[in-house]
Amino acid sequence: MTKIQAAIERYVEDRDSLSDDELAELIEAVAASPELLLELKSQLMIAEMLGQQLAVDRSDFRAQVDQRIRDYQRGEVELDQRAVELRALAQGQLQEAQLRLERRQWMRLWLGVAAMLLIAAGGYYAYLTAPQWRSIARVDRFSGELLLHRRGEKIPVRAAFRVYYGDRIETATAGAFEVVYADGVKVQVNGSTDIEFCYGESSLQKVLQIRRGDVAAQVTPQQKPLLVETDQAIARVLGTEFFLATDRDSTRLEVHQGKVELEQPKLLSSVIVGENELGMASASGVTVSPITWPGDQKDLTFVFQTARQARWARTSSGAIQSYNLQPAGSATWNSHFAMKLQDGSFTVPPEAVAGVVAATTASGALSIQATLTPAAESTAEIASIVTLFDEHHSLALAQRGSELLLRLQCRDHADELVIGSLQAGAPTHVAVSLSETEFSAYLNGQKSARGTFDLQWNNWRQARFRFGEVHDVNPAWPGSLEGVACYSRALEAEEIAQESQRYLDEVRSRPHIPQAELIAIWNRGSQMPRPSEYAPGDAALMVRGLDVVRVLRNELFDESIAPGGQVLAADWAVLNGLRQPIANAKTGQAVRVVLEPFNDNPQLWGHVCSDDFQSDADRARPRYFIVSVTPYVAGT
Fold first, then answer.
1. What's the rounded Cα separation, in Å, for the pair 140 and 226?
2. Which of 180, 310, 396, 630 has its C-alpha lying 20 to 30 A from 7's C-alpha?
3. pLDDT (tens digit, 9 = 90+) per residue, 381-440?
4. In this predicted model, what pLDDT tens digit does every residue of 579-598 receive, in sequence order?
5. What angle, rounded to 10 degrees, do the helices at 104-129 and 61-73 form?
6. What sections of the protein cross the membrane (predicted)?
């Protein structure tokens, strides 16, 4: 909610609540903005006049409604002309009030008179054309399911729609949409995002309020800065391409073209974030630094670092486009927003894959780099990690036992090489570079395999790009994946070594999250979250009690983490619209669990969490997040 919107609400609720300066500022803003004028008129009408003008117990109620319908059918041109006349009359009254009145009481009186004049002369027009009834942009691209908050209602949305002032929209993990304004501004809203489209200081200004999640935008030159507001920051944009992500602790801004001012309003500090720079805002301040990964972006066709960093792909036409990964099974994000692929997968949208294959076909070369962290020392079967494929061809990274494999296949032949070995919990950088019929593979910056193979790129049709597998289809790979980049050129050994060092340094620099590993028994749980509480296809958590039997390792300072103690832990009850095992876990069942502090897992923040442990004692107890859980068998 903007400052002027807040002033309007306060004025409608209590005419004496504004100071002289605030009232003067409101008059100036209303006189300059037809949209704000209509909003004020609409709110005053609802508060003071609607019950009188449209009371059902009046004898001419039906006639009034019929007349308003006939008026509306006369066409928007006539209504717009009448609006111009009404605005001119009202603004004249406002200006006269400012000139003639010297005391605060008279200023309030004339503001009220001007607003009531608008109501009396055009009440029906205000109802039909108030800003919340007028679309400000259209949804051009749409995927997944959304929850639209409009005029106090929650509306599940499964098709394209128009966006109105005041609309608040929540996306599920798989949900995404692109908003296009009349002046060409494009805003890509990605998964797990909560965004509201608000009024600015004038009708020329666009304001986006983001409670959580991320957006990518292409902003054409603006007379008034486009504002992106979060809990920690305000980004002012006049014309640029940028990516912005936020949670309750920080806001991250990446600028790919142009410049953006990033302000931390509580500290009255700001920085200018330029091209290929990163701005960070938090309670402690605001900073700017260069974007360091990927290093050389020549012929770069696809990027996924983490879910809270810029992700984009080059389309078949060569344009840069933000995208949203499509989850399946139990795929989600870990605490650093890397892909967590245990019994699940993420799929790249077809238009993004088409661009990768088109560029590779044209150049005859492809390179892929990725950083993966296995959750298990070995797998019983071959489990795919990264797969680029169509009906007859594939390039895949997979784990078999503790071995990392490179698997290549085309219509009439296949090859499989061991690149190296994997260790549970150890981040590993892997890269594959292909040029014509030769390829090389690298592990942690060191060449580990080479050979010849022709993937026949000219014959690829409707390729797909997937990370992980859903267990019902193929063996699932347990682990996390991040730092994926594709190029339409063959990377040389020196560049791969630099990329490996750069990304692994980034991973190792992250703060350590303390854990505890326990043998425990399920105790009672909270109620299952209701579908009406979260967006369709989205995720929700629930808290359960765990009675501690044995502590295997413990980095947490909590006296209840001891044999005989009880801890309260949350896990996903619903993920990607699917009911998860915790919802069906039986009281008394023994399990082996790994716990982390709930507040150290920002991927959980903002999601519905059912927590029935609300006694005074329970509310004071810490909440944990279940990182992993498996059935426990005595003797193991």
1. 20
2. 180
3. 899 999 999 999 999 999 999 999 999 998 888 999 999 999 999 999 999 999 988 999
4. 998 988 999 999 999 999 99
5. 80
6. 109-128
